[in-house]
User: What shape does this take?
Amino acid sequence: MALRLDKYLTEAGIGTRSEVKKLIKAKQITVNGAIVNRPEEKVDEENDVVCLRGEPVRYASFEYYLLHKPAGCVSATEDARHRTVMDYLTDTARSDLFPVGRLDIDTEGLLLITNDGALAHDLLSPARHIEKTYFAKVRGRVTQEDVNLFEKGVDIGEKKLTKPGRLVILDVYGEPDVPEDGEVISEITLTITEGKFHQVKRMFAAVGKEVLYLKRLSMGPLVLPEDLRPGEYRALSGEEVAMLKNRKQEEYDE
Ligand code: URA
Assistant: This one.
């Protein structure tokens, strides 16, 4: 597919439309070795080599990254007060990347970052029941009764109960001898197919418990790699992107 040279350069993050037009007019841009001075000249982003002052321009139509979001940053592209998840992506070709959905400021874990609006829209669509699995430390003893309640769906103050959640109790610390400070902490995983605001925290609040620590382990076919530390990111493999796209149809209702 061909696109205008000025659009190509803007999308590659070289500058605004007017800035790149100036660079083109100033003969700073070559396409396949030849100076091009018309912003409307078409370039083939797959095959043409575009250089700025002799250096090849890095262009990608779509980029997909998996970030291990650390606590303390917000899932937004800009924020007046806090660091954003975008601050951690230091080496990308595109400047129009954004996080797909949100994790709370104190939540860690897997976050997909892309500029593929269609895929993002699709992954976030409520009609698509994409599974998200979280690990959490919860104050108090999570019980089999909670497992059963989550399986039916709980009332988090929305019109309907939540969709069923798969709750697995991994460990309960502080029992059977409750320590002096009375602190019992449960470690669990919870798999849900919706993405309501503060959903995991609200589901536990609905059964009278407080989430102390929350980390997303997976989203659909994407799994947080064990060797990716908080604040680190990596590009998705072609296979991971294909899996995210191919699973689209199967996951719809009907
Ligand atoms: N549920 C929450 O409560 N918080 C998150 O960040 C994600 C899911």
